[in-house]
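thread: overnight batch results

M.L. [08:02]
morning all. the overnight job finished for the chain we discussed friday. pasting input first so we're all looking at the same thing
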Amino acid sequence: MDRLIICDIDNTLLPAGGTISDLTMRTIRELDPSTGFSIATGRSFHVVRKFVEEIGIRVPVITSNGAQVYDYGRNTPVYESAFSSDSASDLLKLLIQEGFDFVAYGKDGIFFRPGSTHMAFFNNYNASVRKEIRAPLVPLDESDLSVPPDGLTKVLVYSPRDELTQVLLQKDSLEVTASMHSVIDIMPKGSTKGNAVIALASYLHVPLQKVYCFGDNDNDVSMFTCGAVGIAMGNATDDVKAKASLITRNCKDDGVAYAIRHLL
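M.L. [08:03]
and the structure it wrote out:
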């Protein structure tokens, strides 16, 4: 493999509420065999297999905002940065004490607070795939979090208050970023898409200068600053565009396909 293309999913490959376009899908499938293709997403590995199969991805993919690089061919991570049991327990207890709605991505499924009002995304994903690849959705037992779920890689907090974000940012053990409006992503310190790009490139023996990363949001910036070539979508924020080497068209205008055909 001589080079590697890595794409964020939401609002990069996948327009909001839509599907990956035929042109984009065809462009990816027509890549030269010497070019690898992967994705880098904030989603759990439990809700990414659908895209891996549809696109025909043969290399490991970056999930949980970089806390995990998952190989679906072997059904195992090739790189992972999970919370320690104590760190996970303290974080979950804090969020419950403060009354926040959240989900946690773990080895055995997506863990959610009973009564959560934010499960539609996961339920819709499960409804769109065959039974054997549905994400396990597990209500969190809040009565005893001294032993949290195993292998937690990310906690997604809905409608966080600014005070919570500031408290979390001050914790040396945590990585805090935003992947969408009114949501924060919390991972173990050092878990970024950029660090996962470095790990994946090393695993595949591809030089970083031959890795091309597409993204649109704050959690994609680390891919643009890790030594790879960063390509911002036309719909990216100004801050994200400022960190990119190239800017392509909007997601809804097949920006990934345009860049692969005309800019790379």
